[in-house]
Each structure stands twice: as C-alpha cells, then as structure tokens.
Structures
1.
Amino acid sequence: MGQVNGKIAIVTGAASGIGRAAAIVLAREGARVMATDVDEAGLKETLALITKAGGTAATARQDVTDEARWDAVVAETEAAFGAPNILVNNAGIAIAGAIMDYSLADWQKQMAVNTDSVFLGTRAAMRAMAKGGGSIINLSSVAGLRGSAGVSAYCASKGAVRLFTKAAAVECATLGLNIRVNSVHPGIIDTPIWQKSITRITETMQPDQVSALTAHTGGNALDPNVIALGGTPMGRAGKPEEVALLILYLASDASSFTTGQEHVVDGGLTAS
Ligand SMILES: NC(=O)c1ccc[n+]([C@@H]2O[C@H](COP(=O)([O-])OP(=O)(O)OC[C@H]3O[C@@H](n4cnc5c(N)ncnc54)[C@H](O)[C@@H]3O)[C@@H](O)[C@H]2O)c1
C-alpha cells in the first residue's frame, strides 16, 4: 500500500526539478496529483512520466502569483479528484544580483513568485482542507536559514516562507483545524534553477563581483555539483528525488505529530 494512498495533492512548479519529482513520488505512493506550472510543455512530460508509471494525475496551467487562479485550481482539483488534502507550494525562482544594483521591480517579482504565492496557496488550501484536514508543505531553502552574497532577495523570500509556515501551523492548530504546515529547506540540488539563476548573475553583475561570488566553484559556476563541493560535506549536489522523499514523509500520515517545523535536506551544508 502506498504511503499517501487515497490522498489528493496539488503540486506547484511541477514541470521541472523538485516539483516534478514530488509529483512523481506522491503519485507512485498512491496520491492523485494535480500538477501545475506556467510551463505547459514541462507539465506534459511530468504527466507522461506519472501515467507511464501507473499513477493518476492531471495538469493545470497556473501562475502562482495570480490570486484568482488559486481558487480555480482548487475547483479544478475538486472536480477531477475531490477535495485536496496535500499542497506542495514548490514553484520558485531565484533572481540573483548584488544589492547595490538590484531593482525594486526584481525585488517585488522575487517576493511575488516565492512568497506571495505561498500565502495565496496556503490560504486556498486552508479553506479547502478546513473540513477534511491535510498537510501543506512549503519549499523554503537553506537560503531561508542563513545569508548568501548575490541572492539577498531570494534569501529574504525564503526566510519569509520559513516564518509564515510556523505562524500558519500554529494558527491551524489553535483553530482546531486538522491541517499541518511544514517547510522544507533544500541545500544545493541539481535542477535547472541554478542554470537560470547563475546565468543571470553573469549577465547582470560586474565581472569582479562575479569572480568574488564564484571563486569557490573553480570557475565552473553553472554546475551545481561543482558548487556543492565548496560547502557541502557530502561533496555533491542533491537529487530532486532526495527532496521529494522528505516531501512524501511530510505529506503522509507518518508525520501526523509534525507541524510548524523546518526540515533541512542539504548533505550537511548547514551542519558545519
Ligand atoms: N535547486 C536547488 O538547489 C534549490 C535549493 C533550495 C530551494 N529550492 C526551491 O525548490 C523549489 C523548486 O526549485 P527547482 O530547483 O526544482 O527549480 P526549477 O527551476 O527546476 O523548477 C521551478 C519550477 O517553478 C516554475 N515556476 C516559476 N515561476 C512560476 C510561476 N510564477 N508560477 C508557476 N510556476 C512557476 C518553473 O516553470 C519551474 O517548472 C523552488 O521554490 C526553489 O527555490 C531549490
């Protein structure tokens, strides 16, 4: 029997990386999954992977910053499968850049995609789960636990996710709702987000700033596995599936007494 048999999950950012892995693992373990993203081609691939493995899923185009779309996605999930009892707020971007050159527009976009979305998703899920209960899992980062040069807005967005998660968890428990809320804090995971973010560093930052930021990577700033050598005791980047298995635990009833906590999966990065 699957670890989330009979449950209904919404996973955002499911066209790539950690979100795709989470959708696949949850479906493999018995959940029916609504996979959402702005990337419709990527969603098709995710759906094909789930279906090929015998799982059940549907897809919906969703920009997680669009307030009205959240209600529609919950309604589409209810129509397809029933009321959701798992939400993985995973969609995210990393807009890198030095603070002195960073625009307010980039700051606001960073916060909208990574943080506003988590508020909107949590609110929609709490409304949908108020009767039947559920588990909300918010993707933060080790960048939500400590600072890093060149990604200050990303750090701020993920720090906000960490503390919003705790407040939401306490509020759910205090209101007597059977809804648990936890945050997941990956270290360096081998997904396309690195390519997107670091390409932007090299496009927008001064050459001397880029070399200061990438000195520890031996110049190979685009490869998360090389970056991981700089500070990850396990000496490699994580795989999306290794984060997905933690998400599975938090989604399942195995974590029934766990709420409001930050769960780090980083190969030891923050241990030293
Ligand atoms: N990869 C890492 O090293 C790492 C580390 C810590 C935290 N995280 C977090 O994990 C989450 C997943 O990242 P990933 O590494 O799998 O990245 P990824 O780039 O592979 O996937 C992110 C997905 O989010 C989608 N997305 C972006 N903006 C969106 C929007 N407005 N609406 C809907 N979907 C949108 C993208 O299309 C993409 O499919 C993010 O929140 C990220 O910040 C990643």
2.
Amino acid sequence: MTGNPPPAEPRQRAVERLFSPVRIGKLALSNRLVVAPMTRVSATVDGRATEGMASYYRSFAEGGFGLIVTEGIYTDKVFSQGYQYQPGLADAEQVEAWRQVVSTVHDAGGRIVAQLMHAGGLAQGNIHRDHTIGPSALRPKGEQMAFYRGNGPYRIPRAMSEADIGEAVAGFASAAALAGEAGFDGVEIHGANGYLLDQFLTEGINLRQDRYGGSIAGRLQLLVEVSEAVRSAVGADHVVGLRISQAKVNDFLHKRIGGGREAEAMFGALGTLPLDYIHTTEFEAWRPAFGDDGPSLAALARTHARLPVLANGSLHDPQRAAAMIEGDEADFVSLGRGALTHADWPKRAREGLALEPFDKRILSPIADLANADRSRSALLDIAS
Ligand SMILES: Cc1cc2nc3c(=O)[nH]c(=O)nc-3n(C[C@H](O)[C@H](O)[C@H](O)COP(=O)(O)O)c2cc1C
C-alpha cells in the first residue's frame, strides 16, 4: 500500500454504491441517500408548516436524495412540543399544512417520512404547557439551546404518572395516523438525542422503579409501547423507523453506561418490534461505539436488530459514506450538515463535483430558514 489516494475512476465507482435503488419496507427508493432530520423552527407559532418549508424540503428531492426525514414534529397539544415555531402533527390545520409540503416533495419525485418527537424534559418552548414532564424529576444537564431561542438552565420536569405515559403514547399514535392523512410515506419515531424516549432509555436520567424503569427491558418499555401503537396507527403499508443515539443535545459526549453488552440487548429487543429500519446517529458514524476498538453503533444495530440501518454522523465525504455501505455497516446513509451545505449533494457526489465544508453561519444566531437565506445571500455578496 502506498499513501496515495486511489485513482479517480475506482473512487467514483465506489461512490456508485450509494446510488443503487433499494426498498425500506414497502417503500421503493431511488438510492441510499437520506436527508437527516433537522429542526428548523420555521413553522407558524401554532405549528403549521409553511410554503418556505415546502420549498426547503423540495430542494432535497430535486437535489437527488432518495428519502427525506423531516425535522422533529411534535405529537400532541400537551407536553411534546420542544421549541417555539416547531411544527406539529396534532390538529387538522397542521395536517393540511404538511399535506402541501408532502405533495410538493412528491411532485419533485422525492419520498418523505415525518419524524415524531416528544421533547420530554428538554422542552424549552411549548405554547401548550408552562412546565415539562419526564421519566424522573431531575434537571437536565446543560443549558437550553440559544439557536432555538432558549436561554438559561432547563426546567425540572415533573415525573410522569402512568396517565401521562398513556397520553404520550396516544400522542405518538395519533400523530402517526395524521402523518398518513397528510400523505407522508411513513414516520420515524425519535428515540434519540436526549428527548423523551431517550430519557426513558438512559440510566441516570430514568430513575423510575415501576415497569418503565430499572433494567434495560424496563427502560425500553415506553419505546415498545410507542412502536406498537404507531404501527397499529399507520398499518402495514407505511414505513416506521426508529432513531437511536448515544449523544444527547444537552450532553454531546454521553456514552451508554452498559456499553456494548447493553447495546446488544437493546438492539436485539428493538429487532423484535414492528419497525422497518433503525437510524443510528453518532458524531462520526464509522468510529467504534465503545472505546478504541470494535463495531460502530450502526454495525451493532445491523447485527443485533437485523433490520435495515440508516447510519448518520459526519458522512459528508462521499468515500466515507460509500464505505459504510461497502463495509456492510449500514444500508443507507443520512446527511445533516452536508445536505444543508448542498441540497444537491447526491448529484454533486455522483458527478465528482466539489463539496464545500459546512458553514456554521447557516444556523447562527437562529437555526431557522430565514437566517439560512440571509447568510447565503451575504456569502454570495462577498463572492461577487
Ligand atoms: C440544525 C440541526 C437540527 C437538528 N434537528 C434534529 C431533529 O429534529 N431530529 C433529530 O433526530 N436530529 C436532529 N439533528 C441532528 C441531525 O439529524 C444529525 O444527526 C447531525 O447533524 C449529525 O449529522 P451530520 O454530521 O450529517 O450533520 C439536527 C441537527 C442540526 C444541525
């Protein structure tokens, strides 16, 4: 082996692996490239998606992504909303607004699933309730996120009663049914990044002593109930996925305390649920999930859940993305910041065109679409 990069031709051939058509459940996709879910706090104050959001999502379909996962959408009008200007799927007006987005994406040949999210103790901007709930009454680590219009410490959530848990499960189920009405191709349950379902999964955050806490089976119980309720709500023909992470938006370096053994048990149990895929996210998807050696989180999910896996995390280099497929670690790759930089990343990668690094100003000071437009035109002014 020399240290030289492979010649352009074989490199492009490797990238072609990203472009083979494939199915998730009953949904046929033109390639293995997925837009990762990204909260953009750009809906109306009462949670309706806008025309600007429709063009934003359409641009990814036009740019060649096989599948788009929406930003996290709140599921009920009680405790699920996390952020001001977050869209919801909890009433007829919100469904109608999403219908416009979905048909715009479908018209451009895209496929789109709705990410269903309950913020739990990390809710920092909920127009429906002035307090938060979670598995246990513990103040979340860290500070509310400024780029989603929050500041200061998180509130201490009220520990959820069985009735609260029932209401949260019903919210996921009803939002999933409404996603079907809006025309979505499926839903992704947000079980990652420190939000409600991840709070229940995580030792040290879930201190419950009832059947929703304790062992890994207890901590998984809510996810099991939500997955089953969502599947019953959407039926067999729609895709149902689940997102899982170690890191949390308020604790970026978090690792699961139980390590590989817990991950194995967790993914094994998730593999028995009525799910069509698991979407794993790590800072760098290809790194060992635990310690310096061993499989990535995506590979652990694929091996133990035996479901199709979407891998996410710093995969904006086409070679790196293709290597996840080539190495049988994942079936799909999803891009967050890479897709924000280039909505046409798939076309560019396929043609071997230049890909720019992500510019933080797209999301700063506020992570909404208006800020992104302003920062893009400022950059164009500088360039011209
Ligand atoms: C502005 C922004 C908003 C995000 N919102 C969500 C979200 O709503 N749901 C979610 O599961 N992940 C969310 N994420 C995480 C991304 O889906 C993805 O995991 C992260 O950007 C790392 O992938 P990347 O390296 O391709 O950017 C968000 C990321 C960004 C940058």
3.
Amino acid sequence: MTASPLPYPLTLTGPGIVLREWGADDLDDLVALLDEPDIARWTPMPSPFDAEAGVAYLRRARQGRVNGSRIQLAITEEGGRPLGEVSLFGVTTDLTAEIGYLVGRPHRRRGLAAAALSTLAGYAREALGLRRLLLRIDPDNTASTSVARRCGFWLSGDPPIHQEGPYGSTRLDTWEFVAGQVGARREYRQNVASRRYRRRT
Ligand SMILES: CC(C)(COP(=O)(O)OP(=O)(O)OC[C@H]1O[C@@H](n2cnc3c(N)ncnc32)[C@H](O)[C@@H]1OP(=O)(O)O)[C@@H](O)C(=O)NCCC(=O)NCCS
C-alpha cells in the first residue's frame, strides 16, 4: 500500500461516462449485470451471482473504499444506473497497481470499458502519481485484450499467472502501462519496423 489511503468518495468523468461510487440502491442492477456467463468465465465473481452475493459484494466494496485500499466505481452514462464496474487495487510502494473492469452484456461494444479504463488509468497516473498499471487477462479473452490494446497497454513479458477455477486451469497474462515509456515503446516499434523493412522511419 501507498502511505496514504485511496481517495473516497470519488466521482470521475470521462468521454461519455461518469464513474461513481456504488450504493445500496444498486443491488438489483448489480445482480443483473454480474449474473452472466462471460463474467463467470473471465472474472473471479461467484456464479450464480444472486442477491446474497450482491449484498456481500457491495459490503466488501464499501469496506475497501472506506479503508482506502481500493477504488471501485460503477460505470454510468450520467451518474445514473450502473452499466459496469472499474476498479483499482493492490497499490504497492513502488507505485504499481492493478486495474480490473467489466461491462454488463446489454451495454457492451459501445466503448464503455475503454472509456472507463482510460479515465481511471489517467486519474491513477496524474492524481495518484502511480507509475505502473497492470491488467491480468486470459489470452483467450479477446474482448478484454482488445480493451487493453486500445487503451495503450502492452504485454509485460512477466511470467503467466496460473489459476484453478470452475472452468479448469487458466493462465493470466500481465498487460502494463508504464508512465513515461509510451513514447519510448513507439520509438522502439518504429526502429524494429525500420530494420525489418530496411528504411528509416
Ligand atoms: C471485456 C469487456 C469489459 C469489454 O467491454 P466493452 O465495453 O464491450 O468494450 P469496449 O466497447 O470498450 O471495446 C473496446 C475495444 O475492444 C473491442 N472488443 C470489445 N469486445 C470485443 C469482442 N467480444 N471481440 C473482439 N473485440 C472486442 C472493441 O471492438 C473495441 O476495439 P476497437 O477500439 O478496436 O473498436 C466486456 O466484454 C466484459 O465485461 N466481459 C466480461 C468480463 C471481463 O472479461 N472482464 C475483464 C477481465 S480481464
């Protein structure tokens, strides 16, 4: 953990989205969003995700917010009903943290996850001063790897993390965004391209 707790409460605004705190009134929407096969497949959520799981989830979310160990925000369009979630957790003293996201099935393919990830990652870098942001993604999760790529994350090369789950063993790759290295990565790729095609870029 960093020396100071993560800010609470928090509202963040990004392109077409408002990220806001979860509230007790969100229980029915939360259950409808999370009780879904892709979320069961690709995230550690309990399945089936019923009202009891929802109550426990909102309680843990609030604890994590109040004790400052995580940021966990509902993705909304204008601060209204939740359409998904984005979270930041596992902050270390070397200014690294992990980010996770999910979007309810009816709301997918509208850019919500990409907008939420960019907004929270921007806040983490600029307001919290975090240097390295990580995503853990199963390589078969095409939707999530597309979101990572679109938001400027790249495969870190860290060894895969193996996990046993209800769908068998999974292998999570680490994707990273390192502050200050984006330009350097672009230059590296241009140099590789120039060597490959024997021309200067
Ligand atoms: C992964 C997930 C959050 C994506 O949410 P989303 O709001 O639909 O994503 P976006 O609309 O922001 O899409 C961002 C990019 O991913 C691409 N994408 C999204 N879903 C895709 C899919 N199923 N297949 C291929 N590409 C996909 C979009 O086309 C877009 O790429 P582009 O910028 O090149 O057009 C959503 O599918 C989900 O909640 N899945 C289940 C939970 C999960 O996997 N969470 C992540 C765990 S690591």
4.
Amino acid sequence: MPSKGRNEMNVHETYGKSFRGTAAENYQRYFVPAIAAPVADDLIATAALRTGERVLDVACGTGVVVRLAAERVGASGSVTGLDLNPGMLAVARSATPTDMSIDWQEANAESMPFADHAFDVVLCQMGLQFVPGKLAALREMRRVLTEDGRAIIVVPGPKPPLFAIMIDAIARHIGPEAATFGELVFSMHDVDELRELMRSAGFRDVDARALPKILRLPPPADFLWQYICSTPLSDIVLRTDDAVRTALEQDVCAQWQEFVQDGYLTFEVGMTSATGRK
Ligand SMILES: C[S@@+](CC[C@H](N)C(=O)[O-])C[C@H]1O[C@@H](n2cnc3c(N)ncnc32)[C@H](O)[C@@H]1O
C-alpha cells in the first residue's frame, strides 16, 4: 500500500535499474502485473458478475479490479472505485481507458459516501487488512448492498517465506519499521476470523476458504527493488546510502536463490477468500 507522503523517488543506477515516479505509479507499473492482476483474475471469476450489475470495489488502489469488473458488467452496469489514497486514485484514473466510465471516490471504507442498497456487488481485494475498523468497513459494505447483494473479500497471508526473508533483511539492515509493515500486509488471513467477522457484520451464507496462489515474479534483484519502490517500504529504504542498499540486495538475493526457476522467482502465497450475502 503506497503511502501518501512520498512522491518523487531517486534514480538508482547502482542496481542497473531506474525507478522514477511515485509509489502509486510504481504500484501500477510493477506490483499490479506481478501480483494484483493474477489475484484479481481469481476474484473476478468468483464474483461471476452479470451484465448490468452495479459494482463497488472497496480499497480499489490503482483500479485493476475496477477495470475487469467494468468489462464484465458492460455499459448497462456501473462500477465505482473507492480508496482513501488520492495518489492511488490519480493513477487509477490515468490507467483507465477514456471510454470506460468509472465513478472514483476518495473515502474511508469505514464510512462510505453511498446510499443504502446502492450496489449489487461489493468487492475488496487485498485492502481490508489495512483498515483499522474492519467490522465497521464490513458493515458499510453490507449496508450499501441491495437486499440480495453479495460481497467478495480477498486478503493475503500467511506471510510467505519469500516475503519473510525480504522483510527480515530490511529490518536488520535498515530499521524495525519494515517489520511492522510486513506484519500488517499479511495480518488477516485466518479463515475462521474472516468468516466470523463477516457474520458479525450481518452477512449470511458466508463461505470463507484458503485459496493459495502460485505467482511468478521478476528475477530477484528486479523484484526486490520493484516491490520496495511500490510500497511504503520505499520511505524507509531509499533514505539509506548505497552501501546499505547494496548489502541489503546481496543478502536478500542470496536467500531468494531457492525460489528461482528459469531465472524467475516462483512461490506460493496464501489467499483467503470470503463471499457473503446481505
Ligand atoms: C495493496 S492495495 C490494494 C489495491 C487494489 N485492491 C489491488 O488489488 O491492487 C491496498 C489499498 O487499500 C487502500 N486503503 C487502506 N486503508 C483504507 C481505508 N480505510 N479505506 C479505503 N481504502 C483504504 C490503500 O490506499 C491502498 O490503495
């Protein structure tokens, strides 16, 4: 989840790679094709959207789910993307074809600016774990659904060893804030916890299950810097000097060799997926 604060990034020729732009731009450029888009394909398949449906995507980020949903519901349907972060929404707008009419809303998932019964489907991919008031957000998702509306939530975890290696190394080489972020990203994968939370919010027919996903990522050094520059970790890591970053890269890439297949990082990440009806 890119932070709002950081904007321009330096160019890191040291690593033979150039990272420019905001964390939100790098999220769309690197994180989306490597991770968010393959996960979104599964979410959209589960949602089984129909032509004409009104869809809300909560914590939409740069809009990968929004655009897939808009293709499914067609011109007779509608799609709204809600996110707290204006930087993510700005990239979402610019990444969306001009003939795709999307309602982008900057708002908190815990208090949504929509009337009751406004949507047939609510989606939320890899966002709920960041929301402090999870029950409030789920109650809001239920409130804005029609009487027979449905919600589909996807959250990542448990923390895969590949990410544990990177987070531990950043914490050791640079500072403990990295561990806090790493814990938060994978903090909400417990199937029973998500099922109970959805039931507590009033959803019925709740079905929560673990659906692990195999991801093929870029080669180690590329993915390391792409991930850092797409997330709030950039705030911590990019303020250090070249020697620290070189040591970090060597450490992580050495440990990641066990995940390399044909030059690419390949690993399984847990995904917890839950569906429920109003
Ligand atoms: C990892 S990104 C996921 C974005 C998108 N769903 C995807 O799969 O690419 C998490 C998003 O949650 C958003 N977010 C975090 N807390 C939020 C809140 N309380 N209300 C709305 N959005 C929130 C962040 O701004 C960020 O865009």
